[in-house]
Amino acid sequence: MDVDTFLFPENILSFLQKVEKSTNEKPVLFGKCIGHLYSMCYAAGALYGMNRMGLVEINKYFQSHPNVHKEIHLVEYGKLKGKVNLMTHEDFMVSYVYREATGYPVIMNLQFFQFDMSKSKQANPKPPICYHKIKGEKEFYKYYALFYQQKTISPEQMA
To answer: pLDDT per residue over 90-141, tens digit each?
Structure first.
């Protein structure tokens, strides 16, 4: 988890219980999928995780492919097409190695918000698992007060 991420522990625990039940003892990597390749997305930024089997398979792959970090996987579309090697970003590298090692895709969850509340305005009835790019200690306290304390904070106070 990035240090600028506000996590809702009760929501991630609920999500993890569902993942555990539905994966039936298979390797798992989960997060918010983003990407710049046609062939795969990767778990990014705010928060991603894996189960023990996923971690073991990732470690085995790194051991058997010690130069995997030198591979080149260029952005395939958008304004960065052909200009950026995705392997230089750890989020992509971990997801790529996981996919190569297990053959499984990342488990996607839209409740991993890559931005703070002001940019995450979705009409989605499901509770958030996290917000990302929280700016500073004061903003963390505002989020905490908003979601966990009895007193109400107006949207103006959040700004």
So the answer is: 999 999 999 999 999 999 988 898 888 877 665 555 788 999 999 888 988 8
Full DSSP string of 100-118: HHH-PPPEE-TTB-SS-GG
Residue 139, C-beta contacts closer than 8 angstroms, at least 6 positions apart = 116
Residue 139 parent element (H or E): helix 136-148
The whole model's pTM is what?
0.84
Residues 19-49 pLDDT 10s = 999 998 899 999 999 988 999 999 987 889 9
Query: CA neighbours within 13 Å on the CB side: how many for 26?
Result: 16
Q: How many CB atoms lie within 10 A of CB 146?
A: 17
Closest CA to 36 of 4, 70, 74, 64: 74
For the chain, the domains span 6-108, 117-158
